[in-house]
């Protein structure tokens, strides 16, 4: 019986007319018991998890150390926000987005700044980055005359793969520098950089931390149609919402890899498989919510 349901009369208490047997009793061991496994290996501990661990009387737990990462943007055309643009220049945003996403994944991310399209400067910077667990660049991984990242990486390290059949994000490279450092060269187009981070860098960070992989895919109903030519698996920026208890996905207009405006409404991707020509309104589609750090 909870105290709020009784009445005090001097030194006596009056109970409600009906009292349920064994009601409001907290039994020993009903939550967890000695010897119970509270958490399996591979879980990222949240504030809720730590509260449970403390409730169990555990003062310390063994964890893996946080990864260290260096983030670099490459390109002569890049300029920091807040400065006036000159012809041929664009504002650099990939570095900020990558650093913040890494920190959401508990990575100790350092901002390495912007490097011009100069092979010697890039080579020197990467040579001095061998103490990092990850080096992540943006730009310079395609096939242009000034795309030097892949060339420099092949000289001082090894390339495990270059280019993937996805859209956006085809010109991504991955490799190693020495025995310690994992290297990702993300595309320069801002949306391509964000997509490849989600698809490649985030799972790699989770694996490095010995975490259980989490890549949530759900079924949703298409709010509008989308048509395209087959060839690459495509990830469409989408707005996910529920309507009458049903998950709905609306493919946003403006899917160019340079177009950031759609990010104001983007909270997920619609996956269109390589052999698919698209979908019609009302069809079932596969979506991935844009959540991070769920391991």
Write up this protein.
The protein is α/β, with parallel strands linked by helices and 295 residues long. The chain has two domains: 141 residues, Molybdenum Cofactor Biosythetic Enzyme, Chain A (3-Layer(aba) Sandwich), CATH 3.40.980; 72 residues, Beta-clip (Beta Barrel), CATH 2.40.340.10. It has five helices and 18 strands. Strands 6-3-7-11-10-8 form a six-stranded mixed beta sheet, with helices on both faces. The chain has a five-stranded mixed barrel with strand order 12-15-14-16-18. Strand 14 and strand 15 form a beta hairpin. Helix 2 runs parallel beside helix 5 and helix 3 crosses helix 4. It starts with 6 loop residues before the first strand and ends in a 6-residue tail after the last strand. The model has no long low-confidence stretch (mean pLDDT 91).
SSE blueprint:
Layout: E1 7-9, E2 12-14, H1 47-55, E3 68-74, E4 78-79, E5 90-91, H2 94-104, E6 108-115, H3 119-127, E7 134-138, H4 149-156, E8 158-162, E9 166-167, E10 173-177, E11 181-186, H5 190-208, E12 218-222, E13 226-227, E14 233-243, E15 246-251, E16 268-272, E17 278-279, E18 284-289
Helix pairs in contact: 2-5, 3-4
Instruction: Provide the succession of SSEs.
Output: EEHEEEHEHEHEEEEHEEEEEEE
Q: How much helicity do the residues have?
A: 10-25%
**Number of structural units classed as domains:** 2
Question: What is the subunit organization of this protein?
Answer: single chain
State the major sheet.
Answer: 6 strands, mixed
| Overall pLDDT | 91
> What is the number of helices?
5
- Which value, in Å, is the CA radius of gyration? 26 Å
CATH architecture of the largest domain, by name, is: 3-Layer(aba) Sandwich
Measured by DSSP, the beta-strand proportion falls in 25-35%
Distance between the termini: 40 Å
């Amino acid at each position: 019986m909870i105290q709020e349901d009784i009445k005090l009369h001097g030194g006596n208490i009056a109970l409600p007319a009906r009292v349920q047997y064994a009601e409001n009793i907290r039994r020993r061991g009903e939550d967890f018991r000695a010897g119970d496994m509270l958490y399996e290996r591979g879980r990222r501990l949240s504030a809720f998890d730590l509260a449970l661990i403390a409730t169990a009387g555990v003062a310390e737990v063994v964890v893996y150390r946080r990864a260290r990462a260096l983030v670099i943007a490459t390109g002569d055309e890049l300029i920091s926000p807040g400065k006036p643009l000159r012809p041929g220049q664009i504002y650099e945003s990939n570095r900020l987005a990558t650093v913040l996403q890494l920190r959401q994944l508990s990575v100790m991310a350092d901002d390495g700044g912007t490097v011009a399209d100069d092979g010697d400067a890039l080579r020197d910077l990467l040579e001095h980055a061998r103490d990092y667990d990850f080096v992540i660049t943006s730009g310079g991984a395609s096939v242009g005359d000034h795309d030097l990242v892949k060339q420099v990486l092949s000289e001082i390290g090894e390339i495990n793969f270059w280019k993937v059949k996805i859209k956006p994000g085809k010109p991504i490279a991955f490799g190693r520098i020495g025995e310690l450092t994992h290297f990702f060269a993300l595309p320069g187009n801002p949306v391509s950089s964000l997509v490849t981070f989600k698809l490649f860098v985030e799972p790699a960070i989770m694996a490095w931390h010995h975490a259980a992989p989490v890549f949530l895919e759900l079924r949703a109903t298409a709010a509008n149609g989308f048509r395209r030519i087959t060839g690459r698996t495509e990830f469409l920026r989408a707005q996910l919402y529920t309507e009458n208890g049903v998950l709905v996905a609306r493919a946003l207009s403006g899917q160019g890899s340079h177009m950031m405006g759609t990010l104001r409404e983007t909270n997920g991707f619609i996956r269109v498989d390589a052999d698919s020509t698209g979908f019609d309104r009302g069809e079932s589609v596969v979506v991935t919510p844009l959540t991070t750090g769920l391991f």
